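TASK: fixed-backbone design
INPUT:
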């Protein structure tokens, strides 16, 4: 390279670059511009790799998270657990951030909580429970009641409740693992307001559930409420129902009503398919933890956003290819989302930037992309301009939303789509169209390039 090239790079600034984008968290469809970048050719070309890196993975993970949210429904809590499976620490941090944007409620990634304000959650590990072998290992043993009375020796209190629980449930007392009980007691003493039991280290119904109920009832006697339970293996739906029945039985028998409604969380390599099956069969699950199948996006490991030149020196350009879906749409464009009388989006319309925008209640002639058919006429009841200018003259010119605002916008944006477009299997294709003027430009450039 010539030294002058590096001299030029030292002088480059972004004051001549303009970036327009759909608002963060918006639903965008194939072939609709997500970003439009204008400026000196060399400067905007230098931005290609950076912009694609920032947009592709973020959009991919947020989309994957949104699919899990649609499957789970609005009421179930979703927790991102993917840090140990993510593509390195930077990928893990990004995955936590964009899973939250896509609809997850919390993350196990403490750094993501610190940097982005995402709620952090989790439970104890199997290794923690397995590290206890006997009740003699419980240290300290005392817990101060909520009302501030004198500290109580918590271990014998939990043991007494365990005997009552085993008798009620007709579970052999000798089959309940005492190391697991020691782990639960130690955790409850350390975190009495946030006690959660991981139930499947040994036997869920024969040990984990009785031990948890005993410790939860002992906590209740001192004025505390346990937070919930988690299961990390086996038939999650069936186990959730069985656990709920036991919680209801103990809650009623010992007059502790809140125990019946305590939160049940599950994990264990949950995928779209397994989550769909859980939802179809019915369950008592309140929270689902998802890791590998969320952050690695195995159904589609990458998102194919591209960065293409559509106009140079005021001249529209066209990338011509035998594959119709890979052909670019030329010219500097404006994009509009058309809505029906119910407020649902039914079409995205691309027009040349110089064209007047479509009007609500007025018929407009359009050509569907990828269809070799005559023009059709549609009448939108509402029209939304998709792009906003976010960067101009070297300055950010729109207030940038918080992560929570982006998350809310994702939910609102998805709510404006018809259910037929949101089906996770065989969705009805969403219509993307161009104006007649843009259609004729596309055809003219195609003929002149052949």
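OUTPUT:
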């Amino acid at each position: 390279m010539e030294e002058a090239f590096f001299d030029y790079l030292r002088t480059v600034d972004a004051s001549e670059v303009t970036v327009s984008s759909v608002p963060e968290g918006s639903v965008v469809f194939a072939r609709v511009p997500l970003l439009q970048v204008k400026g000196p050719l060399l400067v905007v070309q230098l931005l290609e790799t950076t912009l694609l890196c920032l947009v592709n993975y973020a959009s991919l993970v947020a989309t994957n998270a949104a699919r899990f949210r649609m499957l789970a429904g609005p009421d179930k809590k979703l927790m991102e657990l993917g840090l140990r499976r993510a593509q390195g620490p930077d990928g893990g941090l990004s995955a936590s951030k964009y899973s939250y944007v896509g609809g997850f409620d919390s993350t196990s990634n403490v750094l993501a909580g610190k940097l982005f304000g995402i709620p952090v959650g989790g439970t104890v590990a199997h290794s923690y429970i397995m590290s206890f072998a006997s009740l003699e290992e419980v240290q300290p043993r005392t817990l101060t009641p909520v009302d501030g009375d004198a500290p109580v020796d918590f271990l014998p209190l939990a043991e007494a409740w365990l005997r009552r629980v085993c008798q009620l449930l007709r579970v052999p007392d000798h089959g309940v693992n005492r190391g697991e009980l020691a782990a639960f007691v130690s955790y409850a003493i350390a975190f009495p307001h946030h006690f959660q039991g991981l139930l499947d280290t040994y036997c869920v119904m024969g040990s984990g559930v009785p031990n948890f109920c005993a410790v939860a009832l002992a906590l209740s006697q001192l004025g505390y409420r346990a937070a919930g339970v988690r299961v990390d293996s086996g038939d999650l739906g069936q186990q959730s129902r069985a656990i709920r029945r036991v919680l209801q039985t103990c809650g009623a028998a010992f007059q502790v009503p809140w125990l019946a409604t305590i939160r049940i969380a599950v994990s264990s390599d949950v995928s779209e398919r397994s989550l769909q099956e859980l939802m179809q069969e019915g369950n008592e699950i309140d929270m689902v933890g998802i890791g590998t199948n969320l952050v690695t996006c195995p159904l589609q490991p990458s998102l194919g956003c591209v960065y293409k030149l559509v106009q140079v020196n005021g001249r529209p350009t066209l990338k011509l290819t035998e594959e119709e879906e890979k052909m670019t749409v030329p010219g500097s464009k404006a994009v509009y989302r058309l809505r029906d009388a119910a407020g649902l989006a039914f079409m995205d319309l691309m027009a040349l930037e110089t064209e007047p925008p479509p009007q609500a209640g007025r018929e407009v002639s359009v050509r569907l992309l990828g269809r070799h058919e005559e023009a059709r006429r549609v009448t939108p009841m509402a029209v939304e301009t998709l792009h906003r200018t976010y960067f101009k003259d070297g300055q950010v010119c729109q207030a940038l939303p918080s992560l929570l605002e982006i998350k809310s916008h994702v939910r609102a944006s998805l709510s404006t789509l018809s259910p037929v477009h949101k089906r996770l299997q065989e969705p009805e294709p969403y219509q993307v169209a161009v104006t007649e003027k843009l259609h004729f430009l596309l055809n003219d450039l195609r003929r002149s390039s052949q």
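COMMENT: The radius of gyration is 29 Å.
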